[in-house]
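We give the entry.
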Amino acid sequence: MSSYDFPDDLVHAQRAWYTAYRQLAQEENPSQTTVLRRTLQRLSVRIAAHPYWATIPGRASAARMALKQQTWAPDAEEARR
């Protein structure tokens, strides 16, 4: 598997996406679910439109999966240190 040097803001956005996703899965308050869904939409756009993807033409799909794998664990940031 190739190693990618993801920008910090992209890693933070993906990690925030997973955090919001987990919160939404557990949320029971309808007004809060709306907020979390909007957060997921905003973060999805930020991640998908990030300029980093243009720097790796032809490998963006693999890099997106690597980013997801790197940030999936709730304690992924501590594991990287």
About this structure: The mean pLDDT is 89.
